[in-house]
Design goal:
The structure is a homodimer of 352-residue chains.
Chain A lengths: L14 H6 L20 H7 L4 H6 L1 H15 L4 E2 L6 H5 L5 E3 L2 E3 L7 H6 L10 H13 L6 E6 L1 H10 L7 H9 L1 H25 L3 E5 L8 H18 L7 E4 L7 H5 L5 E3 L6 H8 L4 E6 L8 H15 L5 E5 L9 H13 L4
Parallel strand pairs in A: 1-4, 4-5, 5-6, 6-7, 7-8, 8-9
Antiparallel strand pairs in A: 2-3
């Protein structure tokens, strides 16, 4: 599918979508990674009565926490409440969500285990997500678009092989070295499963799509080229974007920017470890960026939140194609008033 | 002190030292970060009878594990067995080395706690290190120089404030935001303590000095400029190099290379997350580099160890100023034969 051409009626598009396309906006749009998270009392109240996974799978509740967060923060985009690992479960790899992050009781490390994974139909196995999206889109104001998302093939592959998060991803990397064919096979299967899963989110009403490749940055450029690029391109080629801009985010990606820039995407998510201006120069003129405030800045005084927000906006210097965000998910103990201060500072900023 | 001019008799200098100075060499020198570590049976045998800290503080044993590793691997440099946190203990901040990494029972987060830290005389409080270095230098062949090292001010500061390793360094970053004056005060005191500690290693016989700024890469470029650069420059200005080239290594530094290049150093340690050739271009013509094989490659088959080593050497394409190494410390479960295969592959490499 060809890249969508700019909308014929740009004036009615929300500023978040326009910024994703690199078009001029009245002010920089802002939202917060994991904005419907544990730092928010509304979210914690809902979670008192329901597990994380049940919350993801109950459209009324998922819609409620999605909308609560967008309303409380006054942000320019909502993101559907869900989890990057949902497709793994739908493929037959159960996940246990505990206090120490998600774990897979049965990691997939052999061709036999891989053979037991299966594709899935988003209209059936993950129907709850389409319903959540439809509920949210019905309730959102027209200038606040909804973002759909999924884990990218490599990050889901790393969870699948490792069985959870990891410091060094030794098991994953060993499999890539010892059985590269199996690694490519799994990555291709994941790409093939994620493409319709993301396409279904666009069909249900999502206006932008975000691929979280959280762990791709633990790879050398060699492995990124050999494993991440082919699987991600495979997914992107099969994706029915429905006019949505597509964003790609990897943590620790400062050494990979030129490679990420060659993917068929519209927006690159930046973590806080890179200067936004230097990153844009390396990414080239065609890509929009999203980021990139250090989430830990929100633990400081309000004055430094405001100063750091202004600084990033000054670095971008009004260049079109910037969505303000944190450089990674908002942390659980973040004071809500500082999240609000962030949004407020972006909204009030005027370049001088 | 001015940067040392190239040795007047370069032909007798070991290839490791020549490479650190960017001079031509007969072949790329190689050593391995943490080469005297838990993966080595000789090291584990010594550790059966002595704690980690006692090993650091017993010159005969520290010299033995230093020499055992250099001999077993046949590398082009030895590195004195010690720990980056030794200066903290000498300043009055006790450290407990356990299975989950070093912990500081009394983290330093207030001006009162900072006032209780004290400077130290390397000839007295860390005399054991000078003795270890003298013992090693007496035993090493003349073509294998010894590397002295210390934790850099920021990394010691992060341990001091956080009380140990951390996922997000929330406490450290909060202190930097809430009490920047205290942060700068601590960083300056650390720089002032580390400079003579490193200078003493050069006096005792070390031929190169390495600053480990392991955690600097968790900072935004803004914080790197504001906190890491001034303290590191302060240390480097006070350092009596005694003719030693100085190397600086930070993990996750792909977004910081242009900033690191402005430090008064000779060699930049690169982790595996950046392409060596791209990094050299960004660092400019004056700096040598050290790295940058992913330590996890050593978990793969021997053939892939050899292929990946050759690939990095091919990327560098014979340009002077490259010391081959891993991109981070060798991991505890690494097969020794793969560490040997790495060294062997570097030694056998001939650019075609």
């Amino acid at each position: 599918m060809p890249k969508p051409s700019p909308s014929p009626t740009p004036s009615v598009e929300p500023r978040f979508i326009r910024a994703c396309r690199g078009e001029p906006v009245d002010r920089t749009p802002v939202w917060i990674l994991r904005q419907a998270g544990r730092y928010l009392p509304q979210y914690r109240a809902v979670r008192e009565n329901v597990s994380f996974l049940d919350l993801c799978k109950t459209p009324e509740l998922a819609a409620k926490v999605t909308l609560d967060a967008a309303t409380a923060l006054g942000v320019d985009a909502a993101i559907i409440f869900s989890d990057i690992l949902i497709p793994l479960e739908a493929m037959g790899a159960p996940i246990v969500y505990g206090d120490e992050g998600p774990k897979l009781p049965a990691p997939v490390r052999t061709r036999e285990a891989a053979a037991r994974l299966h594709g899935f139909d988003p209209a059936r196995e993950t129907r709850f997500l389409g319903e959540s999206i439809r509920l949210v889109c019905r309730a959102l104001p027209p200038d606040v678009p909804l973002i759909g998302f999924a884990g990218a093939p490599f990050t889901l592959f790393a969870y699948l092989v490792e069985g959870g998060g990891s410091k060094n991803y030794e098991t994953t990397k060993r499999l890539m070295l010892e059985a590269p064919d199996l690694a490519h096979h799994l990555l291709d299967r994941l790409a093939d499963a994620i493409a319709p899963y993301l396409s279904a989110q666009a069909s249900a009403g999502a206006r932008a799509l975000l691929l979280f490749d959280t762990w791709a940055g633990m790879l050398s450029p060699h492995d990124f080229d050999a494993f991440v690029v082919p699987a991600t391109e495979r997914l992107l080629a099969k994706l029915d974007r429905g006019g949505c801009p597509v964003a790609y985010f990897a943590l620790d990606s400062a050494g990979l920017l030129e490679r990420i820039a060659r993917l068929r995407i519209d927006v690159v998510g930046l973590d806080w470890r890179v200067d936004l201006g230097e990153a844009r120069t390396r990414l080239g003129p065609k890509l929009a960026v999203q980021g990139n405030l250090d989430p830990c800045v929100l633990f400081g005084p309000r004055s430094s939140v405001e100063a750091r927000v202004r600084e990033i906006l000054a670095i971008n210097a009004g260049r079109p194609g910037h969505v303000f965000n944190l450089g990674h998910g908002i942390l659980p103990h973040t004071p809500v008033e500082n999240a609000l201060a962030l949004v407020d500072a972006v909204k009030k900023y005027r370049s001088s």
